[in-house]
Design brief:
Elements lengths: L1 H17 L13 E3 L3 E7 L5 E6 L6 E4 L5 E7 L4 E10 L3 E17 L1 H4 L13 H7 L6 E5 L16 E2 L3 H4 L4 H14 L3 E7 L11 H4 L22 H7 L9 E5 L8 H19 L6 E4 L14 H12 L6 E4 L19 H14 L12 E8 L2 E7 L5 E2 L7 E4 L5 E3 L1 E4 L5 E5 L8 E4 L10 E2 L8 E2 L4
Parallel strand pairs: 1-7, 7-10, 7-11, 8-10, 11-12, 12-13
Antiparallel strand pairs: 2-5, 3-4, 3-6, 6-7, 8-9, 14-15, 15-20, 16-22, 17-18, 17-21, 19-20, 21-23
């Protein structure tokens, strides 16, 4: 009798285990679902079973069928945003209930270390006012963050690790600082819950976030590097396979991207590759041309050469990428570093970066009026004797400061640049530059060096984007 009982109990345990759905970690307590959307849900269940989903905000359950391998994928309609906690019960026989689910806005934040950098900071690299921000975190229970754990894979994975966390002081110290400040700024205006998925890897190249099917056509990329036993931030495709691809089913509003430092030295390919990356991401999310807002890399003395232009060339490529990526915009960070941060690739000011990303979203995604999102950018120049008049876009109300404008250089036919004096022109969007060392200037540059912060801003304190008029 006892001999027959043991196999029977084992069989019962197996059936019970199979009857309980398996969910990805991204579907967890405390998550935020995108409002007024068909929010996708997915996982595993007993093969060929019926999976039933019941949400507290509707009386209409959703049913779907698991395939022969037990995989299922469906969607549930969500209402308008609310701070009222909801529940979500998913069952193929034995229910799994997710608690404290909020309905709001969800953004996918990705990139390298300056996106990854938590409010806790890195060693010798603090986040400005971090203690105060962390202490204040419990006052913002409508913000939730899911941080995708770092791992490597040679092929696209089904699941990634990363559960949603509430903003307790213990949790908040590990939240992406840029992502958290972005969420704070959005919530302040939208007044709805905001969820951030932080999927970043310090030092990663843009090629790390692209699939093999694209990378195999890039002659300068060695895919064999990804097969090395010790994974590295230099490896292609491993971030895409292990971190990003498993998140593709989660319904989001858009992307925020902060990357570029590890592509310095390869600026000639960057704009096109980032555009290709975005196009592919949008294709696997299947939500159309959802917004892609990104951050210009900050001034930094690459190779201990603040006067060189390797970093400036990458920033130039980032700026040009806007024309290649529909529904995208770049924010400038040229003014957000301190002089002592020239050898520090992780500047402490992440709040203004999060705010500026939010301005782009609030104006261009959510349609708010009265907020200025775009920095002044170079439009055209006109040489006249010993001076050059430079005109800008997004500067209809002029500039600040009135005196001691810093960051301009001009050159003559000899291609040697000299610091230039700058003053306001006759039109609000004009700046006139000159130098006693250049009698007939033909080219202008503004902050076009690895580390050269400027101080010229528009009337809403957004910085002029670094630029050059030459192609030397």
């Amino acid at each position: 009798m006892k001999a027959n009982l043991i196999p029977a109990l084992c069989l019962l345990c197996c059936i019970t285990a199979n009857a309980k759905v398996k969910l990805p970690q991204l579907l967890s307590d405390h998550m935020v679902l995108q409002q007024q959307a068909d929010a996708r849900l997915w996982g595993e269940a007993a093969p060929n079973s019926t999976v039933t989903i019941r949400a507290s905000w509707t009386n209409q359950p959703v049913e779907t069928k698991a395939d022969a391998q037990g995989v299922w994928n469906t969607a549930i309609g969500t209402p308008s945003a609310s701070f009222t906690p909801q529940t979500l019960t998913i069952s193929d026989g034995e229910p799994v209930t997710l608690h404290d689910v909020l309905i709001g806005e969800v953004w996918f934040c990705s990139g390298q270390s300056n996106m990854e950098m938590p409010l806790n900071g890195f060693d010798k690299c603090p986040i400005y006012d971090s203690n105060n921000v962390i202490a204040d975190a419990p006052n913002h229970p409508g913000i939730r963050v899911a941080t995708i754990e770092r791992k490597s894979a040679l092929t696209p994975q089904t699941y990634a690790n990363g559960e949603w966390k509430e903003p307790t002081t213990e949790n908040a110290q590990w939240f992406s600082a840029t992502g958290y400040f972005y969420a704070l700024a959005l919530q302040r205006t939208l007044q709805v819950p905001v969820g951030i998925i932080n999927c970043s890897w310090g030092g990663s190249c843009v090629e790390g976030w692209m699939p093999e099917e694209i990378l195999k056509d890039y002659k300068d990329i060695d895919l064999n590097k990804a097969k090395e036993k010790e994974y590295s931030w230099t490896h292609p495709m491993i971030m895409y396979n292990a971190l990003l691809y498993p998140c593709r089913n989660y319904t989001i509003k858009g992307f925020a991207w902060y990357q570029g430092c590890s592509n310095v030295g390869r600026a000639d390919t960057y704009a096109d590759r980032m555009a290709t990356m975005v196009r592919h991401w949008r294709s696997i999310w299947k939500e159309g041309d959802i917004p892609f807002y990104y951050v210009e890399i900050a001034p930094f003395a690459y190779g201990n050469k603040p006067e060189a232009i390797d970093g400036a060339l990458l920033r130039e490529a980032q700026f040009k990428a806007q024309a290649l990526i529909p529904n995208s915009a770049m924010i400038s960070t040229n003014d957000l570093v301190e002089p002592y941060e020239a050898p520090q690739i992780h500047p402490q000011n992440k709040k203004d970066i999060g705010d500026r990303l939010a301005y782009q979203a609030l104006v261009k995604t959510y349609g708010y009026k009265g907020i200025v999102a775009d920095s002044p950018s170079y439009k055209e120049m006109q040489a006249d004797g010993d001076k050059i008049t430079v005109r800008f876009n997004h500067a209809e109300k002029g500039f600040s400061p009135w005196v001691d404008i810093e960051g301009f250089e001009i050159a003559g036919q000899d291609k040697v640049f000299h610091p230039a004096k700058a003053k306001f022109g006759s039109a609000p969007n004009e700046i006139i530059v000159s130098s006693p060392k250049v009698k007939k200037p033909v080219a202008v540059r503004y902050c076009f060096r690895n580390f050269q912060p400027g101080n010229l801003k528009n009337y809403r304190n957004l910085p002029v984007i670094p630029f050059r008029t030459d192609s030397w």
